Amino acid sequence: MANKxxxxxxxxAFSFCNAQNIQNKRTILFVGAHPDDxxxxxxxxxxxxxxxxxxxxxxxxxxxxxTRVTKIPAxxxxxxxxxxxxxxxxxxxxxxxxxxxxxxxxxTKIGTGNYFREHQRFLDSLRVRIPLINPDIILAxxxxxxxxxxxxxxxxxxxxxxxxxxxWVNKYPLYYFAWKKGIESVDEGSYMxxxxxxxxxxxxxxxxxxxxxxxxxxxxQFTVEELKEEAANKLKDISNxxxxxxxxxxxxxxxxx
Length: 257
Prior knowledge:
Blueprint: H1 2-24, E1 27-32, H2 42-50, E2 54-61, H3 76-93, E3 99-103, H4 112-133, E4 137-140, H5 145-148, H6 150-166, E5 174-178, E6 199-202, H7 205-215, H8 224-236, E7 241-246
Parallel strand pairs: 1-2, 1-4, 2-3, 4-5
Antiparallel strand pairs: 5-7, 6-7
Helix pairs in contact: 2-7, 3-7, 4-6, 7-8
């Protein structure tokens, strides 16, 4: 009888702990403009994925104009390859399969009218996708677009816009990347005064190695030398941490400033 009681107590304790573990898991959503944008914070994405959280990646465009280091001409063929590279990256990081929205571009290179149309299509897609994913946390580049890339800025602004428009600011908390001044970056101007940092996420050497593995998926976007240099830069930075700033809006109406 005592053994049977002990068995049921252990079973109950195991079930309770398992329920607690499931309850503590979160859903995290990264929203980027192009295939490879997730590599900006891939160490963080891997950290949360390996802990059992669901990590989703939304990519607005297919990057079919990204011909910087490849001989493949701009167009659908390149876009297909770049999407395959993102699938490779997400698999290396242990993320959910990436979601591609198929937006043509998010700048006026396609003409002002077409840009307005694609921007609206992007907003409409976010309005549908975000509730379906139901994230506990959304991650985006922020007002500097990480590297001042115009499409990065538009994507981050669009995520912010949709949360404001739909009243989702508290429902789906949004965090922007926040780089310290002097951090090695594509654009040295992309930094934030650290008094505005809200979250510090530390990661392990394993997370860093997975980030390097994911980056190596993008052979159409980086030369062999650049991939080696980027890997060396990651390994050289022993802080192993990335900062974020939470998007917060004060509520309440007054009659003057």
